[in-house]
Structure formats: C-alpha cells, structure tokens
Amino acid sequence: MFGDMMGMMGKLKEAQQKVEATKKRLDTVTLEETSPEGLVQVNITANREVKEIKIDDSLLQDKEQLEDYLVLTVNKAIEKATRVNETELAAVAKEGMPNIPGMDSLFK
Asked: Is the pLDDT at 75 greater than 60, yes or no?
C-alpha cells in the first residue's frame, strides 16, 4: 500500500516538474494575430505575454478606429494563446497523472 502511495507521489512530482518545464517552454512559443485588413499585428507568447504590436500608419489618423482594432486583435491573440497554453498543459498533466480510478474523466 505504501509503495503504491510513494510511487503515486513520485509520479505527481514528476508531472509537476513537466508542467513547470512546459510553462517555461511556452514562454518561447510566439503566436501572431493580424486584424482582418492587416492593419494591426500582435505577437504574443503562448503564456499570454504581448511581445509586439505593429500598427499601420493609416490608423494613426483615427484614434477610435485604432482602439477598436487593438482591442479586437489583442483579444483574438489572447484567445489563440490560451488555446495553445491549455492544450499543452493538459497534455502534460494527463501524461504524468497516476492511474487513479475516476480521475481519467477530468482530463478529457
């Protein structure tokens, strides 16, 4: 019984280390989102840190339009980064989890 418990604890610790390593790796994964007309481009990491925003000069004349494009494009970039982040972390967590009856449905 205690051997099984120690084995599970070891697997949980290993899974936690893999999750932390994946989080660090996701800092290096850069995603790009561009507005429909290509006037705003946002580069963001898979950990949802905005790295760069490029704005077409034509938007500098209309503050309200620029704000709208920024909000739209940044939100889409965050959604994309969140999907990548959650998919990667869920895969690592599921891979490292010990086989505990009833827990498998939590990671589907």
From this structure: yes
